[in-house]
Amino acid sequence: MSEAEERRWVGVMLDKLAAQESRRTLGDAELTERAERLSEQFFDGRARPRSVRWVTNQNTRWGSCTPAEGSIRLSHRLQGMPEYVVDYVLLHELAHLLVPGHGPRFWELLEAYPRTERARGYLEGVVAAERLPKVPAAREE
């Protein structure tokens, strides 16, 4: 398979995956409930967000957190991604309610989530695919 063909197929498969997963998009209220469940499951309920919502102004970050306000924002770009990826980003931001930086204590918290490395790899793959040059789709005759 040529490089151009490989890029085209990666795009096709990402589009198919996004279409399948988009049926499972959560609203803000469901996102908040999910964050609360994850906090209970992995952080003994210690991370208590006041608000969790989708935003459309984050194109270089997957999520952000303001610990002083207890607010978590997730990029709309996560919508349609597999649940374990959204859960990882939620847990990442929940962990910031407990530990502000990305030091060893922060990463120890995330070790409790068994899909951390898988989710990080998925997100890295998405970023890498977005950086590939766009190849026009082959015209069918």
Summarize the structure.
With 141 residues, the protein is mainly α. Helices cover 52% and strands 10% of the residues.
Give me the secondary-structure topology:
Blueprint: H1 3-21, H2 28-43, E1 51-55, E2 63-66, E3 71-75, H3 83-98, H4 104-110, H5 116-131
Helix pairs in contact: 2-3, 3-5
Notes on the protein architecture:
The protein has 141 residues and is mostly helical. The chain has a single domain, classed as Metalloproteases ("zincins"), catalytic domain (Zincin-like). 52% of the residues lie in helices and 10% in strands. It contains five helices and three strands. The chain has helices at residues 3-21, 28-43, 83-98, 104-110, 116-131, and strands at residues 51-55, 63-66, 71-75. It has a three-stranded mixed beta sheet with strand order 1-3-2. A hairpin with a 4-residue loop joins strand 2 and strand 3. The longest helix has 19 residues, at 3-21. The model has no long low-confidence stretch (mean pLDDT 88).
Number of domains: 1
Rg calculated over all Cα atoms: 17 Å
Binned, the helix content reads 40-55%
CATH superfamily: Metalloproteases ("zincins"), catalytic domain
Strand order of the largest sheet: 1-3-2
Strand content: 5-15%
CATH class: Alpha Beta
The geometry reads as elongated
CATH fold name: Zincin-like
Keywords:
141 residues, mainly alpha, Zincin-like, three-stranded mixed β-sheet, 5 helices, 3 strands, 52% helix, elongated
